[in-house]
């Protein structure tokens, strides 16, 4: 079986790489001889980490050929289609492989070449505009079968595309991944004589205010708990490091263990560091899932519905970023350390591989999964999305104010430029007058004659000598 897998792979996002690891493991469990090709942002790294073939997502010819040669197409999780950064359909046709809209390229090509398309444990949304919902409706219509990882995603697709038949509620693949096989015990040799609090943050709207509030809460914790050290843990090896470094500057050097952050290159590095912490607070979904699997008492910093959903399912304390309050966060962290959770949710049902087998065998009409009961979740989700919108509006207002200030500064720079430019023109005109004057002509003629005349050179030297 030739399998082509697309998703957000090859970009050093630890969560997405763990999802890919589980998908590959599941496919090999179904067909040990399966030939797998991954659509990747970093072909060599994907080959190295996952021991599969890969093609560049920015190479249209390789992409088309790989889809054409495949027996089945998998569009892997996590959450691919959302409207946090907008959706620009033009980019799909002008800059191949870029933008959210690029995720539709693979299923579109698959439909053209009549390849079966399976969406594997997708996270969906949120969407804030009709354009976003319309794109989403079309994107999900390209699949023959869809599994989603949370109820929010399930109901969102159902509300956008009620006609979709084969959509099934499941969980995130990483919840069933054996993380211990990636972990090198005591890799970073962090001393065990202190309590170790791991923290993950990601870039987000209004992050300056987020950093300030979280830093103040942790500063209070450090004052109260003497033997605790803070360990920054990036779950995106490109974008998380800067924000984590920013918050670490707030704490005394002897209360921070940040020598590890620069050495993070692979998911295994991150998991090995996670294994060494005692407690954890995190934003990214897979940081929370990882903490649960490794039995680390945690607090989820909820910036997205997916994080809220999994925090509830795992019975993890959480705080919504839109309502972030340093006193509440401090209290949660203090309780986390004084009364650590001892029971962690295990054996989470994960049925996507089973559904995939039925999909391959054209056996989807048999009852696979009971649909979730309709509750007031949709009302709660609307409230959540509105809260996100309020956060975005505050951030947009802040950016607009900054833009007004920068425009004013630009006008000042322009005025200074015009002043300097006018002065330059005046000096240039003055030089032109000098160069065209009779005096300058005589001076130039004199020096020309002097340089050629042996007698004048001698006279000049005699004058200088005297």
Structural features:
3 domains, Rossmann fold, alpha/beta, extended, single chain, eight-stranded parallel β-sheet, 17 helices, five-stranded parallel β-sheet, 13% strand, 466 residues
Strand content: 5-15%
- How many structural domains? 3
Strand element count: 13
Distance N to C terminus? 100 Å
CATH topology of the largest domain: Rossmann fold
- Compressed to H and E, one letter per element, the order equals EHEHEHEEHHEHEHEEHEHHEHEHEHHHHH
For the largest beta-sheet, the strand count, sense and barrel status come to:
8 strands, parallel
Based on CA inertia axes, which overall geometry fits? Answer: extended
Radius of gyration: 31 Å
Could you explain how this protein is built, in words?
The chain folds into three domains: 2-171 and 349-374, 3-Layer(aba) Sandwich (Rossmann fold); 179-338, Rossmann fold; 400-466. 50% of the residues lie in helices and 13% in strands. It contains 17 helices and 13 strands. The protein has helices at 14-30, 43-50, 60-68, 89-94, 105-112, 130-141, 151-160, 207-224, 240-248, 267-276, 285-293, 305-313, 326-338, 352-360, 377-436, 438-452, 454-465; strands spanning 2-6, 35-40, 53-56, 72-76, 79-81, 117-124, 145-148, 167-169, 195-200, 228-232, 279-282, 298-302, 317-320. Strands 1, 2, 3, 4, 5, 6, 7 and 8 form an eight-stranded parallel sheet that branches. The chain has a five-stranded parallel sheet with strand order 10-9-11-12-13, sandwiched between helices. Helix 8 (207-224) crosses helix 9 (240-248) and helix 8 (207-224) packs across helix 13. The mean pLDDT is 86.
């Amino acid at each position: 079986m030739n399998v082509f897998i697309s998703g957000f792979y090859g970009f050093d996002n630890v969560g997405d790489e763990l999802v890919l690891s589980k998908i590959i493991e599941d496919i090999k469990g179904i067909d040990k001889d399966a030939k797998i090709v991954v659509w990747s942002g970093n072909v060599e790294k994907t080959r190295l980490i996952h021991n599969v073939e890969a093609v560049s997502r920015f190479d249209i010819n390789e992409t088309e050929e790989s889809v054409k040669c495949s027996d089945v197409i998998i569009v892997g999780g996590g959450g691919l289609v959302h409207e946090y950064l907008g959706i620009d359909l033009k980019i799909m046709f002008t800059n191949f492989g870029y933008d959210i809209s690029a995720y539709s390229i693979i299923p579109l090509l698959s439909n053209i070449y009549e390849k079966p398309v399976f969406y594997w444990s997708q996270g969906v949304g949120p969407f804030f505009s009709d354009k976003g919902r319309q794109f989403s409706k079309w994107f999900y219509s390209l699949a023959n079968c869809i599994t989603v990882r949370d109820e929010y995603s399930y109901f969102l697709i159902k509300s956008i595309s009620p006609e979709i038949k084969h959509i099934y509620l499941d969980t995130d693949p990483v919840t069933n991944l054996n993380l211990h096989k990636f972990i090198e015990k005591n890799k970073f040799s962090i001393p065990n004589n202190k309590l170790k609090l791991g923290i993950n943050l990601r870039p987000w709207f209004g992050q300056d205010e987020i950093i300030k509030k979280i830093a103040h809460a942790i500063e209070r914790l450090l004052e109260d708990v003497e033997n605790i050290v803070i360990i920054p843990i990036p779950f995106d090896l490109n974008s998380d490091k800067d924000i984590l470094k920013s918050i670490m500057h707030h704490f005394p050097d002897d209360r921070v263990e940040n020598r590890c952050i620069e050495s993070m290159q692979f998911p295994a590095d991150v998991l090995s560091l996670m294994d060494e912490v005692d407690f954890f607070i995190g934003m990214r979904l897979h940081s929370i899932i990882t903490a649960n699997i490794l039995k680390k008492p945690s607090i989820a910093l909820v910036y997205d519905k997916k994080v809220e959903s999994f925090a509830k399912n795992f019975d993890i304390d959480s705080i919504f970023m839109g309502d972030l309050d340093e006193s509440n966060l401090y209290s949660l962290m203090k309780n986390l350390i004084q009364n650590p959770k001892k029971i962690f949710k295990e054996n989470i049902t994960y049925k996507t591989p089973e559904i995939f087998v039925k999909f391959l065998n054209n056996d989807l009409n048999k009852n696979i999964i009971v649909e979730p009961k309709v509750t007031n979740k949709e009302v709660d989700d609307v409230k959540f999305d509105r809260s996100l919108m309020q956060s975005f509006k505050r951030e947009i207002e802040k950016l607009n104010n900054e833009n007004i200030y920068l425009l004013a500064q630009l006008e000042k720079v322009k005025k200074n430029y015009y002043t300097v430019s006018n002065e330059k023109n005046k000096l240039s005109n003055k030089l032109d007058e000098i160069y065209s004057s009779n005096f300058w002509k005589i001076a130039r003629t004199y020096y020309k004659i002097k340089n050629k005349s042996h007698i004048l050179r001698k006279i000049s030297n005699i004058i200088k000598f005297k």
